[in-house]
Amino acid sequence: MKYRRLGRTDLRVSVICLGTMTWGEQNTLEEGHRQMDYALDRGVNFWDTAEMYAVPPRAETYGRTEEIIGSWFRTRGKRDKVILATKVAGPDERLTYVRDGKPRLDARNIAAAVDASLKRLQTDYIDLYQLHWTERETNAFGRLGFAADPGEEVGTPLEETLEALDAVVKSGKVRHVGCSNESAWGVMRMLSLSDAGRGPRMMSVQNAYSLLNRSFEVGLAEVALREDCGLLAYSPLAMGALSGKYLDGSAGPEARLNRYPHFKRYRGPHKDKATSAYVELAKSHGLDPAQMALAFVNTRPFVTANIIGATSEAQLASDIASIDLTLDKEVLDGIDAIHQVYTYPCP
Fold first, then answer.
1. Per-residue pLDDT tens over the stretch 184-199
2. 267: Cβ–Cβ under 8 A, 6 or more apart, which residues?
3. Is residue 47 within 8 Å of 82, Cβ to Cβ?
4. 62, 189, 266, 292: which is deepest, by most CB within 10 A?
5. Beta-bridge partners for 47
6. pLDDT on residue 263
């Protein structure tokens, strides 16, 4: 395994981060435990979860993924071996079952969310606590064509959110903080406020990044490198699409995009053409398409960690093994050539 420094902290996290959002929905408690055992044995010391997991979120499974992780900590006694990241939910009118039905990134919600996560996780501290999404309208979750609304209610001011995060850090419940589904403006604004003494510094930004979505490279990559606020890349396989299994029909009915067809972000005629080009490139060089896609993300200089998610142990083993794959110049040139044709297939 390889390790990188998390922001400006003293923590060194594995480049492969264990994503957990399927646990409690597509994976059982026992399967989650086996994945944690396997990953830790192979040097993966960084795990990512959220209060909103399992996914897709619903009241019946709210917090279930954190509970599965907590039960592993209780039975294995290895909390000190893991760098643990979780997240607090922002506003969403569908989340009628979260706190008072109106989750916000204010002091009351953040304090309550931290305490609830700690209880489910059966630990007394969180290494990295992230804002799952923003209160203000921005280009998150595939949104295009952003336009500021002069009359928009932006919700909790960033200053108040940072002060709330400062309180949970000073309490010892949280060691460091990060953001997710953020823009370059949002990250820089929070870093500026932190530099002015208004709260803790963002140590990472967790956004989507893959061969099908390289939008992070425009604007945010420079922020990540110059400000030591690296990317925690989620959906590096575009929900499994980049494995090619949805193109050749090998994906079974339990595969994520077959089981949940409303997840349309990474499928469609144009997107499938881009995926097909990357899959054919991998095969022409004798590479597994999924491992090639992950290896590309692993080696980007602005990436701190690559968050993999697997529903089977075979997928998990293959994903972790991508850390040992080096892509030669011919493959990288081929990736760039495809990117020139399909520059932005998925927002």
1. 999 999 999 999 999 9
2. 241, 246, 257
3. yes
4. 266
5. 18, 84
6. 82
**For the whole model, what pTM was predicted?**
0.96
- Contact between residue 70 and residue 122 where contact means Cβ atoms under 8 Å apart: yes
Domains of the chain: 3-341 (3.20.20.100)
**Are the beta carbons of 127 and 84 closer than 8 angstroms?**
yes
d(CA 51, CA 69): 12
Reported as a single tens digit per residue, the pLDDT across 255-280 is: 888 888 878 788 888 899 999 999 99
pLDDT for position 73: 98
Tally of CB atoms within 10 A around 4: 14
Tokens at 342, concatenated: 């399909």
pLDDT at residue 244 above 90? Answer: yes
- Give burial (CB, 10 Å; 0-12/13-18/19+) of 347: middle
Of 38, 53, 266, 278, the active-site residue reads 53
Annotation marks residue 53 as catalytic: yes
